[in-house]
Structures are given as structure tokens and as C-alpha cells.
């Protein structure tokens, strides 16, 4: 039965995309020679549309801005938008369509790790470039992919440090949705906490299915775990949709941020827009960007973005900033290389530095990840974040976590002559464990 | 700052207050003679807008004995303490944004641009501590009780003198028992008291019988006399036994609550699938439409009639019923009536309808979650014994049962109900008796859809209001209807409650993921054994 549904959905998706392609082809005939095509691979329907639609709009916004500034290499940019419909195999199909048929120079896309893994072989085979803008579990570095979201050490570990130092937390609940990002992040965090002297009985790990909506038992368990006399905090890797009922239940059971603070890695301004935030005041989130960052660059960006979307309440968030950084890096690298040829751009990208929206600069490192500041924010009544802590400098991504057995000896360096995403420093061989 | 330093500060504050209380008759007169104490230093500290300074200033303010202190602390808690100008000055933002002097509460002549003093969790705790300490001597009995509970939670030995001073003057029995309990909580861990005193404290705390008492009892020092340890161990064992029983009851309550949600989600399907036999994949989207109706109603109320917010759900329920009911009739008339008896085509067609509805909502309202607020009577929780009951969940259980019995009454007692039963039991016979079967089909489908819409109003209170809302309930709904017995409303009720309770009893042992899998396996095995579910309809009706 399920097969039939996917099939039906795929057919519907194909029909839609076909129509979209026709429309695009019709409009683009005259200028086909002078444009550089930019692919956008974000779900516009299905479960992930809630998060990914904004990123599609962001790329369209950046393309418009860049064209207004004269385009790239004297040519206009043209966005090609496809809808992989939150369907992982369809992501690969759509990626192939973008690269092989539409001949895009670069693709901005994916949100979930499983969608990224699904398109990887396509990007390798057809040798194209993917910019991936979402915080993720690390343990990967590919030649064709540039990761502009945070690795665990650029989000999770500074957040835990903040709670330890500023809130004196000694007992930890690691709560997450049951898939690869929370599982890997929690494994890293567990190892990190133990290295800091936290005992096993002071760590509670809990996983829930996607879209979990009945949190009564788990919140009661957290409350029980937190009443052992030591300061307790929840580190939440709960995925988007399940957060609203989770926070509602916390509010219902009277757990306040001053008693048991929750620090979340997947809750940003967009997610909070759907919740009554009054009971959540004081709960935390760790990101590399908040809309409330008080610098002129950010204010200017928000103003232009709200004008573009014709909505003066439209919020900005961290994956948007990562998309913006990735886009600007690609433009700069293309101009540096003087061509959109994938091999040359991939080499040119390493070392490119562009301003981020929190008043500093982010650089593309040889491991294809970028340097980022880490910000800790407390939820305010208006659904924005009050930034309570900011790392003094930029943090370099650890794509292979030093806290995991399989990956602690691995490094990634895509500069010649090493050109390897998983070089094992112990054996001195490329393609060590972890792959 | 470490928690020890924070405790120390809190202790200092309480000591100072104890002195204040002790010297109250003289102190008040003296303060008046000498004029209000000088608090310019902490006020200046507040304008630096650094958390450390704010926290220190709060401590100093509470110690100062200034009559303005309480007002300033309250203003800070409410985000109305602002600063601005050069050099920076502190103001309290009054009604209509007017800036008041924090000491005199008189409006200031010239108002500079101001920013609120920032607050984080640490500062919020300091505010609570300052408020708690200030209110041990508050004239309001409720506040004194709160303060005593706060002191009991902090279990700080240095607070003992202040607490005992307050206790000696206390006349309200409720406040007195709270203060006694707080005192006992502190004494249990204190060095240098007699075993008899400690045993008395253990007994007092043990009588509370809750989770907090357990944590306190576990802190009896190792140096305590053996008879004290024995008393504590007995009390702990007693509480644990007691809590295990309450825990079971709590799980059953959670189960009923989950069951009521399942019931709400499934009850509309019990009509469209159970009674009519339409495999209705768009059922979840009807629930979603109901939730969005609630959102629209609340939006209108927010912008035009803010006073009606508390009854927004009551307004939304009939509107959601009518709206989704009409959509249901429309779907039946335009699509489903051509597909009766062709299960596979119906399944695909309704699946398509569900995708269309989802994408339509996504286009109109956007892909992100919409905020549906909870009216005040649905917020908060209360306790019966050790059983924590949240008001929202309680109302959802009540609502689901109301809907169930209303539906049952409609089918049993009304003419349209009679016709529905007649048509589903024997269509040709019903037609020959003069019943317009086409019209009854449309009404039945409309009724099922309308009920799904009403369920959406309730589910908007506990789940995301997003285009995907319906998808998460469709599988569970079919599970409940099939498990309960197709075509039997009582089966749906019992099935939903059974699945809810079983799920919640399994969850503590197996975890949420495994619990759900285990439940599915159990249901599959059950269906193997009894293919027609819990309450199988007997006779010919099912084949009609």
C-alpha cells in the first residue's frame, strides 16, 4: 500500500515539476545564453516544507540581490527551483535533473541528513557542487559538498559548557527524536560529559518517534529525574514538529526555565512563531545566528528580506544565514576562479572569507566546513532570543568528532596533495574508519 | 558564579531580614527618622545592564530595607525597569509608557531614550529569592506561604533564624505548617542537632509523601545517629511504595488522556469508514481544517474582539463542524459517490484529496505552524494526592466523551440517524421505503467530516497547527477503528481507551519508540485472532 502512495505522490510531483520546467523554459529562451543557473533543492510540500520553504525564498532573494548588483562574471543568475516533496529518493532524482538536464552550476539544498546522503552519489557522479545549510551531526566531509551549517562542536558542546558554567548544571537529560542527527549528537555529548566527570547515573537519554505528540510520560520522567537535588537541564535535539507539544507539556506541568532549563538545537525563530512563548521564557537555544543580533549588517539584511517577502513580520533564522553565507562564498569563489567549472570552483572555495550576519567573517576551511561564532539565546516573550552568551572568537568545525571512537583519528583536508575527506592520522591512509 | 555563592548571598539576605524583623518596632521608626536608606549604588549598578551587576544589585536592594526596593524588584521582573540617558539613569516604566523615578514614582521631566534592563535565568532566580525573602514578612498570608515553600526548597541553613523569627509571629495555620515543613527540611541536613529533633523533622517531612520529600530524606548526613537513619530509611521505603501506586494511577490517567485524543481523531472515521465503508484517507485533513478554523476564529477575535478570547474555542467548535461538514458533503457529492463499492479507487481518490487540501492550506496559510492560544480555563494543572492533572487534558477527555455520546444519541434517537443506519444496513430496502439514499450518504459523510473538524479544534490545543497535522493521526485513527470493530461506535470508544492506556503502561518500560512498535505488534496479533475487532457486528449488516 505504501509503495502505491509514494508512487502516486511521485507522479504528482513529476507532473508539477514538468509544468514548472515548461514555464521556466518558456520564459528563459531569450536569455539562455547569458545566464548562470543556480539550483534550489528544497522541499516545498510534505513534512519538511515547514522548514525548507524559507530557504528556497532565501536563495531566490539572494539571486535577485546579486542580479541587482550586476550578476556574476557579467552574467545574470537564474534560479531553477524543484520540489523533492520531503521524499528522500526523490531528492536524488531531482538533483540529477538539476545537474544533468538543467545544467545548473551549483545547488543549494537539503535539510535532513538522510536527504543529503541520498543526493551524495549523484553529486559525486556528475561532479557538481552542493551547499548544505543546516546544522548536522558531522562525521562526513565530501569533495562536492560544502557544509555551511554547524558541526556538533559549533553548537552542542558550547551550549553544554554554558549550562555547566553559568547554571551549575550537574544532571543531564539528552532528549531527541529517533534518527541519525540526535543519536550521533547525543553520543558525542555523552562522551563529552563523561570526560568532564559527569557520572552515568546523572545522564538520562530518551528518544521519541518523529512527530511525537503525547509528551506526558516523558515530561513527568524529566520532572522526576530533576528532583534528585542536583541542578538538571534538558539538552533537546527534538526535531521541528514535535517541539510544540513538548514545550506545551512543559508549560502544563509547570516546569519553568529557572527550575529545569531546556537548551534546544533545532528550535529557532521560525519554530517559535507557532507557539505561545510566554511559558517558555528563559528556555535556551544554541545557534550561530539569531535574528536579534544587534549589528548594522543584520538590521540591513532583515529590512531587505522583509521588503522582498512583503511581510514585515517575516522572521530570519540560522539556516537562512548559513544559506546566505554559502551563496556569497560561491559568488566570490566563481569570481576568483573566473569560471563556474565545478573543479575550479571547488578548489577556489577553500579559504574564501565572507561577512556573516553577526558582525564578523566566516571562512571556508579545507574540511569544507566554515568557521562560526556560537551564540546562546534565551527565549523572550515575543518569540525572539535574548543573546546571553557569545563565544569570543570563531570556532572551527570538527567534522570528525574527537569524542567518538571511530572518528577521533580522522581529519579532512581537501587541499592538494592530501585531497581526502577521511584521512586517518594513525595509519596515514585516506579512507580510514568511519566511512 | 557557583551555586554556593548564590546560596550564600541568599543567606545573607535572609539574615538581614531576620534582624529587620527582630528590630521591627524600633527599626521602622528609626528608618523614618533617618530618612530612606541610600540605594543609589545598586541603582547605578543596574544601569550597566550586565547580569552579574544586576544580580549583585538585587542582593543589595533586598538588604537595603528601602521602601522602594520591592517596587523596583517587581518592575524588573515585569520588564518595566528601564535605563537611558547620559549618564545612564534608571526609571520605572509606568502606565502608557511614562517614565517614573524609581524612588518617588513621580513622572520625570525629560525622558531620554530607554532600554529595559536585561534579565536571564540567573537574574530571574535572584528576583525570586529577593521576592521570597521580602515576602516572609509580607502582610499577605498567601505570599508568606509561597515564601516559606521557597525557603524550604532552597534548604539553606542560614535562612533558619529568619524562618524561626517569622514562625514565632505566624498565626495562620496553613502558613505555619508550611514554615514548619521548611524548618524541618533544613534541620534534616543540619549538623549538631539532637537525634530526637532530627527524627521529628524526618517524620514531618516523611508525612508529605511526595517526590520532593524523598529528595530531602535522602540527604540525612552519614554522621547521624543509627536510629535517625533507620527512621529516614523507613520513611523513604514508605514513600516509595506509595509513589509506585500513585505512579501506576498517573500512567492510567496519561493513558486515558491519550485515549481521548485517539478517540477524537478516530470518531469521525468511525462514521465515514466504520459506518459507510469508505476508506477515507482525507480524514486527517478534516481534522486539520478544524484546527485551522480555530486559528482563523482566534485571529478574528484577537484583532476585533479581544474580550472574547476565553470563549474562542466554544465559538470555533460549531463553526468547525459546519465548515468541515460542508467540505465533506462537497467531497462526497463530487468524488466519492462515483466510487462506492470500489475500495481501491476510493483509497487513491481520497489520498489525492488529502494532498490537495494540504497543499491548499500550505498556499493560503504558509507552511509554518500557526499559533493557537489556550484560553485561561484550559491552562495550568492541579494535584489530587500525588496525581498531577493538567486542565487542558482534562477538558479534552470531557470533550471527547461529550462528542461520543452526542454522536451516539444522533444515530440512535434522531430521524437522520435512523435513516443512516437503515441505509448502511440495507441500501435497497431503505430506498424502497422511500429514503433518499443519495442524500443520506452525503449527510453521513458530512457528519463524519464535521466531527473530525470538531476534533481538530481540540487537537489544536495540544499539537502543531500545520498542514501536516492530519497525517500524524490518520494511521492511529484507522488502527483504533479496526481494533475496536468496524461499524461499532462503542468499539471505537473502548478501542481508543484500551490502546491509550496500553501505550502509556508500556512506555515507561519500553520507551516511546519501542512501546509504539510493541503496541502495533499486539494489535496485529489481535486482528489475526479476531479479524472484526473487539466488538464485531453480527449478522448481515456488514456485507450490505
Automatic annotation (TrEMBL), chain A:
Species of provenance: Ancylobacter polymorphus
Key word Lipoprotein present: no
Keyword Signal on entry: yes
Coiled-coil regions, chain positions: none
Gene3D superfamilies: 3.40.50.2300
Short name of one Pfam family: Peripla_BP_5
Keywords for the protein's UniProt record, in alphabetical order: Signal
Name of the protein: Urea transport system substrate-binding protein
Span of the signal peptide: 1-32
UniProtKB/TrEMBL annotation, chain B:
Record-linked Pfam families: BPD_transp_2
Annotated TM spans: 252-279, 311-331, 343-361, 394-418, 439-458, 478-502, 509-527
Keyword vocabulary terms for this entry: Amino-acid transport, Cell membrane, Membrane, Signal, Transmembrane, Transmembrane helix, Transport
UniProt xrefs under InterPro entries: ABC_transp_permease, ABC_UrtB_bac, ARM-like, BCAA_transport_permease
Membrane-topology annotation of the record: Multi-pass membrane protein
Entry keyword Transport: yes
Family statement: Belongs to the binding-protein-dependent transport system permease family. LivHM subfamily.
Name recorded for this polypeptide: Urea transport system permease protein
Predominant location: membrane
Subcellular location: Cell membrane
Residues of the signal peptide: 1-31
Keyword Cell membrane listed: yes
Amino acid at each position: 500500500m505504501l509503495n502505491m502512495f509514494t508512487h502516486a505522490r511521485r507522479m504528482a510531483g513529476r507532473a508539477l515539476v514538468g509544468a514548472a520546467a515548461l514555464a521556466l523554459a518558456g520564459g528563459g529562451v531569450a536569455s539562455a545564453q547569458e545566464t548562470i543557473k543556480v539550483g534550489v533543492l528544497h522541499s516545498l510540500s510534505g513534512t519538511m516544507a515547514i522548514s525548507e520553504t524559507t530557504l528556497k525564498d532565501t536563495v531566490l532573494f539572494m539571486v535577485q540581490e546579486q542580479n541587482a548588483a550586476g550578476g556574476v562574471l557579467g552574467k545574470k543568475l537564474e534560479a531553477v527551483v524543484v520540489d523533492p516533496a520531503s521524499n528522500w529518493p526523490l531528492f536524488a532524482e531531482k538533483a540529477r535533473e538539476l545537474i544533468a538536464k538543467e545544467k545548473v552550476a551549483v545547488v543549494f539544498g537539503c535539510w535532513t541528513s538522510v536527504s543529503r546522503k541520498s543526493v551524495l552519489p549523484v553529486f559525486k557522479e556528475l561532479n557538481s557542487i552542493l551547499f548544505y545549510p543546516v546544522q548536522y551531526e558531522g562525521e562526513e566531509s565530501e569533495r562536492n559538498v560544502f557544509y555551511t551549517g554547524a558541526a556538533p562542536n559549533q553548537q552542542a558542546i558550547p551550549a553544554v559548557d554554558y549550562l555547566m558554567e553559568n547554571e551549575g548544571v550537574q544532571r543531564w537529560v539528552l532528549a531527541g527524536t529517533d534518527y541519525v542527527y540526535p543519536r550521533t549528537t547525543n553520543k558525542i555529548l555523552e562522551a563529552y560529559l563523561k570526560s568532564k566527570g559527569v557520572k552515568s547515573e546523572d545522564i538520562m537519554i530518551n528518544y521519541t518517534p518523529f512527530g511525537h505528540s503525547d509528551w506526558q510520560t516523558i515530561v513527568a520522567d524529566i520532572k522526576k529525574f530533576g528532583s534528585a537535588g542536583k541542578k538538571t537541564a534538558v539538552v533537546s535535539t527534538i526535531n521541528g514538529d514535535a517541539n510544540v507539544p513538548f514545550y506545551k507539556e512543559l508549560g502544563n506541568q509547570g516546569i519553568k526555565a529557572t527550575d529545569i532549563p531546556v537548551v534546544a538545537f533545532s528550535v529557532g525563530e521560525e519554530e517559535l512563531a507557532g507557539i505561545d512563548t510566554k511559558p517558555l521564557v528563559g528556555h535556551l537555544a544554541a545557534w550561530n545566528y539569531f535574528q536579534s543580533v544587534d549589528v548594522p549588517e543584520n538590521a540591513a539584511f532583515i529590512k531587505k528580506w522583509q521588503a522582498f517577502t512583503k511581510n514585515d513580520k517575516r522572521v530570519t533564522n540560522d539556516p537562512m544565514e548559513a544559506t546566505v553565507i554559502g551563496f556569497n562564498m560561491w559568488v566570490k569563489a566563481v569570481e576568483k576562479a573566473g569560471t563556474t567549472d565545478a573543479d575550479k570552483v571547488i578548489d577556489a572555495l577553500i579559504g574564501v572569507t565572507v561577512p556573516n550576519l553577526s558582525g564578523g567573517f566566516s571562512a571556508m576551511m579545507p574540511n569544507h566546513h566554515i568557521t562560526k561564532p556560537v551564540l546562546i539565546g534565551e527565549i523572550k516573550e515575543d518569540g525572539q532570543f535574548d543573546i546571553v552568551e557569545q563565544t569570543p572568537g570563531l570556532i572551527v568545525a570538527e567534522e570528525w568528532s574527537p569524542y567518538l571512537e571511530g572518528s577521533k583519528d580522522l581529519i579532512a583536508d581537501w587541499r592538494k596533495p592530501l585531497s581526502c575527506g577521511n584521512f586517518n592520522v594513525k595509519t596515514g591512509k585516506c579512507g580510514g574508519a568511519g566511512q | 558564579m557557583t551555586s554556593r555563592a548564590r546560596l550564600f548571598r541568599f543567606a545573607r539576605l535572609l539574615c538581614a531580614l531576620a534582624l529587620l524583623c527582630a528590630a521591627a518596632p524600633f527599626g521602622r521608626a528609626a528608618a523614618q527618622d533617618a530618612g530612606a536608606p541610600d540605594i543609589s549604588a545598586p541603582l547605578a549598578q543596574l544601569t550597566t545592564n550586565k547580569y552579574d551587576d544586576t544580580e549583585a544589585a538585587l542582593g543589595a536592594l533586598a538588604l537595603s530595607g528601602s521602601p522602594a526596593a520591592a517596587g523596583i524588584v517587581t518592575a524588573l521582573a515585569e520588564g518595566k525597569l528601564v535605563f537611558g540617558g547620559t549618564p545612564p539613569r534608571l526609571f520605572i516604566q509606568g502606565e502608557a509608557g511614562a517614565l517614573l523615578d524609581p524612588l518617588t514614582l513621580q513622572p520625570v521631566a525629560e525622558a531620554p531614550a530607554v532600554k529595559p534592563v536585561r534579565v536571564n535565568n540567573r537574574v530571574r532566580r535572584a528576583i525570586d529569592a529577593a521576592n521570597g525573602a521580602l515576602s516572609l514578612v509580607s502582610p499577605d498570608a498567601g505570599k508568606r506561604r509561597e515564601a516559606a515553600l521557597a525557603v524550604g526548597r532552597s534548604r539553606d541553613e542560614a535562612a533558619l533564624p529568619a524562618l524561626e523569627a517569622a514562625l514565632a509571629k505566624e498565626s495562620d495555620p496553613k502558613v505555619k505548617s508550611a514554615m514548619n515543613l521548611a524548618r524541618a527540611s533544613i534541620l534534616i541536613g543540619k549538623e549538631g542537632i539532637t537525634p530526637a529533633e532530627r527524627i521529628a523533622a524526618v517524620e514531618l517531612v516523611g508525612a508529605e509523601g511526595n517526590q520532593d520529600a524523598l529528595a530531602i530524606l535522602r540527604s540525612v548526613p552519614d554522621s547521624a545517629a543509627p536510629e535517625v537513619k533507620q527512621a529516614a530509611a523507613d520513611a523513604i521505603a514508605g514513600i516509595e511504595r506509595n509513589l509506585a501506586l500513585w505512579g501506576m494511577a498517573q500512567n492510567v490517567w496519561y493513558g486515558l488522556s491519550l485515549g481521548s485524543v485517539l478517540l477524537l481523531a478516530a470518531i469521525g472515521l468511525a462514521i465515514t469508514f466504520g459506518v459507510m465503508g469508505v476508506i477515507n484517507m482525507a480524514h486527517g485533513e478534516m481534522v486539520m481544517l478544524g484546527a485551522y478554523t480555530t486559528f482563523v476564529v482566534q485571529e478574528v477575535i484577537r484583532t476585533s474582539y479581544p474580550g472574547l478570547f476565553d470563549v474562542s474555542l466554544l465559538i470555533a467548535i460549531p463553526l468547525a463542524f459546519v465548515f468541515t461538514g460542508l467540505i465533506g458533503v462537497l467531497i462526497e457529492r463530487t468524488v466519492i459517490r462515483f466510487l462506492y463499492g470500489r475500495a481501491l479507487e476510493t483509497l487513491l481518490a481520497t489520498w489525492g484529496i488529502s494532498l490537495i487540501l494540504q497543499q491548499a492550506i500550505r498556499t493560503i496559510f504558509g507552511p509554518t505552524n500557526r499559533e493557537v492560544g489556550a484560553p485561561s480555563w484550559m491552562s495550568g494543572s492541579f494535584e489530587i494526592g500525588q496525581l498531577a492533572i493538567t486542565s487542558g487534558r482534562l477538558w479534552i477527555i470531557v470533550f471527547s466523551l461529550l462528542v461520543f455520546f452526542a454522536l451516539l444519541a444522533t444515530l440512535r434517537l434522531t430521524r437522520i440517524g435512523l435513516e443512516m443506519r437503515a441505509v448502511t444496513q440495507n441500501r435497497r430496502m431503505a430506498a424502497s421505503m422511500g429514503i433518499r439514499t443519495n442524500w443520506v450518504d452525503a449527510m453521513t459523510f458530512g457528519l463524519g467530516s464535521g466531527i473530525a473538524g470538531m476534533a481538530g479544534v481540540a487537537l489544536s490545543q495540544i499539537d502543531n497547527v500545520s498542514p501536516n497535522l492530519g497525517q500524524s493521526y490518520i494511521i492511529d485513527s484507522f488502527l483504533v477503528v479496526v481494533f475496536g470493530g468496524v461499524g461499532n461506535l462503542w468499539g471505537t470508544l473502548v478501542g481508543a481507551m484500551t490502546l491509550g492506556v496500553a501505550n502509556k503502561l508500556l512506555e515507561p518500560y519500553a520507551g516511546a519508540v519501542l512501546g509504539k512498535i510493541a503496541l502495533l505488534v499486539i494489535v496485529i496479533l489481535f486482528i489475526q485472532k479476531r479479524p472484526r475487532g473487539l466488538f464485531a457486528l453480527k449478522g448481515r449488516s456488514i456485507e450490505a
